[in-house]
Every structure is written in C-alpha cells, then in structure tokens.
Amino acid sequence: MDKYVTIEEFRELRKKLFTDEHPHTLGEYEGVQLDSGICEMMDELKSFKVRADDCWIVSYPKAGTTWVQEIVFCAMHDGNLQEVNKTHTKLQVPFLEHSMPEEVRRLKNLPPTHRIADEMPSPRVIKSHLPGQLLPPQIWTKKAKIVYVIRNPKDLMVSYFYFENLLNLKGAGLPFEEYLEYRNSNKASEGSWWDHYLYFWKRRHQPNVLLLRFEDLKRDLRGNVETISRFLGKALSAKTLDDITEHCSFDNMKSNPMINPDYLLSTDERPGRSFMRKGKSGSWKTHFTVAQNEAMDALIKEKLHGTGLTFDH
C-alpha cells in the first residue's frame, strides 16, 4: 500500500474519515452482519486470486490479530527487523475486506485494499476478519497457509467493548451489560464469535491451517514464534527467534510506531485511549459481574458443546 500513500498521507486520510460524515452502518451479506462498505465489495472478493504461497492471518476481531500478524511478517522476512520496520505494518499487510470509503480514497487515487493486494509481490501476508465461509474460495483450493487465532471469549468481549468505543463503531456507547447482549447475538458485526471460531476449529488438523490461542502466546511467546516459523517453512536460528520474540513483546509493539495502529489511525491523539490497550489474559474478571459470568459460561457451554473446544475459566 505504501506504493500509493506515505504514512503521513494515510494518517491524513484517516483523519478525514473520522471528521467527515462517515457513519459506521451495518449491512447483511449471506446472513452475516458486516460493515455496509464491506458488503458492497463482497461479491468482488469472491473472485480474489489467492496464491499458494500466501499466508493469511484470520481471526474474529480483538483475538490477537495484530500480534500474530507481526510475528508472521517477521518470520516471512527471515527475522530481518530492519526491513520489517521500514514502514508501518498496516501498509505492508493488506486488510483484505477493509478499504476507506471511495470519496476518501479518491483524494489520493487509492484503490480498494484487495486490488492493492493483487499487485503485491509474493509471498504475501494478508489478514482478514471474515468468517471462513466468506473468505475468497480460492483460499481452500490453493491451500494457502492460514494462521487462525482464538481467544477466551470473555476477554474478547472486554477488548472489543473498548475498541468499538475507541473508534465509535456500532456498539459504541452501550453500557457493558447491553454490549455483552449485542456481541453475544447473531446480530453483532462480523457475525457470532462461536460460528467464527468453530469453522476453523473443525479444520485445525488440515496441514495448511495453524490454530493458535492468545493465552498460549502469552504463556510461551518464544515457543509460539518458533511454531509459527516452522509452519511457514522457515528454519530460523535461535538468535533470530529470540530477536523476533523480543520485537513482538507487547510493550515493544505498543511503543513501536511502525506496529501500533494508534499512530497510523490517529487514535494516539486521544489521551488515555489506545488500540493496543493491555494485551492481557483474564481482564474479564474485573469487568464481569457474577451474574454476567454465569450467563457467559452457560452460553459458552451451549455453543461449544460436543466440539472439544474449551477455555480456561
């Protein structure tokens, strides 16, 4: 994307997006609630040309996407951190379904993101929050590598709650109790978290799919950096793996303007609010009431019953 815009220009476009009248509205595509702008592009995305040497990072939002994206991008570049830090990761890893509104893109003659991805050299790293059934069909026929990330849905609720308020998205302004009801329904943006999770959980043994847990990354980042590297066919040295691990620690990522979305999305200009908030497991314990926790446990049990997918309490 940096072929079309500089970091500074991208920031200005984002400011234009936030200050003009561009309300976030939802539409429906094949039964899934998506941003209306995404719905308009979905038919075209069905014919997106996937390459066998692609690596796709896929997740439900706020499951750890930015974290895993940076690990994958570092591994794909053999741990060359100087190269990785040349420009912001958002300009190097296309977010397939997310493009700015046409009137904003027109200011810099910026194509939709998926068309920019078409022009990128191989091997590409691409990310998406689309549920598996809405991804470009060629992702399955070309057997591109897919790294899928899941997170305890309770922590996901908390992180998503703050994120939607940060960017004034559909769920912004709701009290946390009402937000839980919204996010735990089939009317939530991006669809239900359980359907999103289970689509990939059922495919976790396919050789081109690597399923990761946010909590495991927190417990053993170095081990998961090595697992991801091997999945990508990389035999990196211990020193390189150590360097990637340090580079991808939460504190280093949050302080790195070439990684933290705050800098590129202009959210760093809102004191006390951040895209990369805490990066912790178990934050739900300070947000859920006893009743909310019991209701969430019951929902998790109902939706995941018989699948083998469980989460620590």
Explain this structure.
It is built from 17 helices and 6 strands. The mean pLDDT is 87. It has one domain: Rossmann fold (3-Layer(aba) Sandwich), CATH 3.40.50.300. The protein has a 4-stranded parallel β-sheet, sandwiched between helices. The protein has helices at residues 7-19, 36-45, 65-76, 81-84, 89-92, 102-105, 113-119, 138-141, 153-166, 176-183, 193-201, 214-219, 221-231, 238-247, 250-255, 261-265, 290-304, and strands at residues 26-29, 32-35, 55-59, 125-128, 145-150, 209-213. The N and C termini lie far apart (41 Å). Helix 13 crosses helix 14. With 313 residues, it is α/β, with parallel strands linked by helices. The longest helix is centred in the last third of the chain and has 15 residues, at 290-304. This is Sulfotransferase domain-containing protein.
Brief write-up:
With about 325 residues, the protein is an alpha/beta fold. The protein is built from 17 helices and 6 strands. The strands form 2 sheets. The chain has a 4-stranded parallel β-sheet with strand order 4-3-5-6, sandwiched between helices. The protein has a two-stranded antiparallel sheet with strand order 1-2.
What descriptors fit this protein?
single chain; Rossmann fold; globular; 313 residues; two-stranded antiparallel sheet; alpha/beta
